[in-house]
Description:
Elements: E1 2-8, E2 14-17, H1 19-28, E3 33-39, E4 45-51, H2 56-68, H3 82-91, E5 94-100, E6 103-104, E7 110-116, E8 122-131
Antiparallel strand pairs: 1-8, 2-7, 3-5, 3-8, 4-7, 5-6
Amino acid sequence: MIEKIRISTKNRNELVDITDEVKKIIEKNKIKSGIIHIFCPHTTAAITINENYDPSVKEDISNFLTKLIPYRSNYAHTEGNADAHIKAAIIGSSRTVFVEDGRLAFGTWQGIFFCEFDGPRTREIWVKILPG
Length: 132
């Protein structure tokens, strides 16, 4: 079974911490041990894991990607969102995390982020639990 997280973004580029939503899915399904796979079914958005303690980290990531891959450039893709496709391809559409003792098996400062590169939009994130 796939659980879905719906999210509405406010900006063209933004990283949204979805760690708590993923934790709620683990709790709801009473998963004590297993694997959770988080997938983004959009070609202009991505999923990553990084520090979620200091909010400046997500700002730095977003700002650096914007400098590296600017919104307007000499892209062959003419829909106006070529930069978003490139950013999503670099970051990736999914992440897999272990669940142990009913919790995400994370380092101290880690969190799960939805990366919006073509917002604002309403998006879905799909979560698949593999009990183990």
